[in-house]
């Protein structure tokens, strides 16, 4: 079994780590675009062109499925990616976990990139799955880039700015960018400080996306299998080592076991 995951950078680590935990026997292929990232500020047409290049590079390795482990790319490019690769390769997008967050009946904050915040796509998800809920969209400028660079000070500043925009009575937080799942602990701390220690339920997409990818190829989670799956990294379509910045995160360290690193 070979599962490919794509993103502009290391935002795919959360979904890749979830897949590694669910299927230790699966070969993982990570396809990134270090020269073109971040994708968020790009026009939809430009972003789609970059995403197609990353997806086609992955497709050359004949994976059983391709996970678009990027919310922004899923918003703008998923139809083009599916048109290019399916039905030969199932393409699984990443959708913000708005539906389960709204089901709790509390107040929901959706942290997302400025490109996704307020987009017709996200507003459509809110209308479909959270019409009766109190929802606040929270733009997080600079956070994904700070996570990508592993810059802890920049992450702290971006998280603090977004926390200041988050209503104090929020009960559920949707992490609407795959990069944000890598710094959930920092987000949790910042929100707790803002609200005097309130508890929040966080909703990411990594595990749900991994499960959906397995479902699409007729497989199921088998986390107790021996870890025999390999790791291949494509940087701009060229095979290379796992970016060193990935080691700053637990998900990256999980994947890095036995894999070479970039310096």
Tell me what you see in this structure.
Helix content is 41%, strand content 17%. By secondary structure, the protein is an alpha/beta fold. The chain folds into two domains: 2-94 and 206-256, Rossmann fold (3-Layer(aba) Sandwich); 98-203, Rossmann fold (3-Layer(aba) Sandwich). α8 (184-195) links the parallel β7 and β8 (201-203). α1 (13-22) packs across α10 (250-256) and α2 (44-59) crosses α3 (71-85). It starts with a strand and ends in a 7-residue tail after the last helix. The mean pLDDT is 92.
Key words describing this protein structure:
263 residues; alpha/beta; Rossmann fold; 2 domains; 6-stranded mixed sheet; 10 helices; globular; Asp/Glu_racemase_AS_1
Q: What is the count of structural domains?
A: 2
Decide which structural class fits the backbone.
Answer: alpha/beta
Q: What name is given to the CATH topology of the largest domain? A: Rossmann fold
Q: Ranges with pLDDT <50 over ≥5 residues?
A: none
Secondary-structure element order, N to C: EHEHEHEHEHEHHEHEHEEH
| CA(first)-CA(last) distance | 29 Å
Keywords: Isomerase
InterPro entries: Asp/Glu/hydantoin_racemase, Asp/Glu_race, Asp/Glu_racemase_AS_1
Organism: Streptomyces cirratus
Protein name: Glutamate racemase
């Amino acid at each position: 079994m070979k599962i490919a995951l794509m993103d502009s950078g290391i935002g795919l680590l959360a979904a890749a780590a979830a897949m590694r935990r669910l299927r230790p026997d699966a070969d993982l292929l990570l396809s990134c675009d270090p020269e073109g990232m971040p994708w968020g500020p790009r026009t939809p047409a430009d972003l789609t062109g970059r995403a197609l290049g990353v997806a086609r590079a992955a497709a050359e390795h004949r994976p059983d499925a391709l996970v678009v482990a990027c919310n922004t790319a899923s918003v703008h490019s998923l139809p083009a990616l599916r048109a290019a690769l399916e039905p030969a390769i199932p393409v699984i997008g990443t959708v913000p976990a708005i539906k389960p967050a709204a089901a709790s009946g509390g107040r929901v904050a959706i942290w997302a990139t400025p490109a996704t915040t307020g987009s017709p796509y996200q507003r459509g998800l809110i209308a479909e799955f959270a019409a009766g809920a109190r929802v606040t969209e929270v733009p997080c400028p600079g956070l994904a880039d700070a996570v990508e660079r592993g810059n802890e000070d920049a992450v702290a500043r971006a998280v603090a700015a977004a926390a200041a925009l988050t209503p104090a009575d929020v009960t559920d937080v949707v992490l609407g960018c795959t990069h944000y799942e890598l710094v959930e602990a920092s987000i949790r701390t910042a929100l707790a400080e803002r609200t005097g220690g309130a508890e929040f339920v966080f909703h990411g997409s990594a595990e749900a996306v991994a499960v959906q990818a397995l479902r699409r190829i007729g497989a199921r989670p088998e986390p107790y299998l021996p870890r025999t799956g390999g790791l291949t990294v494509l940087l701009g379509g060229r095979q290379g080592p796992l970016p060193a910045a990935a080691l700053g995160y637990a998900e990256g360290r999980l994947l890095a076991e036995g894999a070479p690193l970039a310096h």
